[in-house]
Amino acid sequence: MNLDSLKNHLQSFHVLDDHEIDDFAQQTTYKVLPKNDYFIREGEICKKIAFVLSGTLRSYFTSVKNEEITYCITFPNNLMTAYSSFLTAQPTPENIQAITETELLLISKEKVNALASQNLNWTLFLKTIAEQQYIELEKRIFQLQKGDAKQRYLDLLTKQPEYVQKIPLQYLASYLGITQRHLSRIRREIAF
Q1: Is 16 exposed, middle or buried (0-12, 13-18, 19+ CB in 10 A)?
Q2: Which domain CATH number covers 103?
Q3: 110-158: per-residue pLDDT in tens?
Q4: What is the average pLDDT value for the chain, to the nearest integer?
Q5: Which domain, by its residues, includes 20?
Q6: At 142, is the secondary structure helix, strand, or coil?
């Protein structure tokens, strides 16, 4: 198992030194999540953080109309968890499912808390992650409220071209906040 992508991701925050990053990496466990399997289901309590080595995950909830609403897609080289459940130890309202076979590195909340209690850099790192999550959430809200669907799709296609084609149409349309028919129309327009 190659830990380089995890180490590079952690270095990108400019908070942790090489020894701290190595310590974190050595405490992770490797897991393969088969396509359509779940990292977590609604009602469970999240006790782990995952780093996505390969594959794609979707986070979704079920609406009052019993529709699955995909609100987040996690691509490789990103940390992922059911964040509010992880923080509060309360059951999560979301489901996190593998769209493709997905390789993960997992670390438990207990290990993360132990690192944070031993070293102020880990507290700063966790604060940075929380700030980043807030900024991403704000961007997503603005994108859905202000941008048009075609631009949202083009942005996603620019950032993750190799993965967008592997995401089933219904998940991608839900993530973009449009119907499958509208997404098909956008794809046709772009192709010309």
Answers
A1: buried
A2: 2.60.120.10
A3: 999 999 998 899 999 989 988 988 898 888 888 777 778 888 888 888 8
A4: 91
A5: 4-116
A6: helix
